[in-house]
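Justification of computing resources. Each target in the renewal requires a structure prediction run like the one illustrated here; the chain below, 155 residues long, is used simply to show the kind of job we budget for.
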Amino acid sequence: MGTRRRSRELALQFLYQFDTLSEASDGTPGASGKGASLDEELALFWEGHGDRVHGDMKDFAGTLIRGACGNLSHIDGIITRYSENWRLSRMSRIDRNILRLALYELVYLSGIPPAVTINEAVELGKRFGTEESGSFINGILDKIRLAKENGELIK
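Resulting structure tokens:
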């Protein structure tokens, strides 16, 4: 498995955990429910992975995590706008967080071709989601890709 694919998997695991723990607490982000910082949460996450995660993998995953979390309200707004008849709260936690990661890549990381980002997101959906996750993710991301290419998507 490639470094970037593994990085995306790690970023998805973090976002899933962060999302789950935020929802279980009073809605305040952080595993403790007491507003632990993203850096503290990330340090705990890396500590739990020990030395199985090397520099490049950790760097790219960290970029995705910080970017998705730091732009969460904007990203969620875009997902909401382009996911017809689906509220974020109705999406599976896996699908929602795959979309968040992919959207961060599509909107904020210009060095990654959109086709690669979408393909990687679809593969994550197939691996970790339901039978329908791949096509669901592909449909939403393709609409967003087209909007971006047509200049309709504002960063």
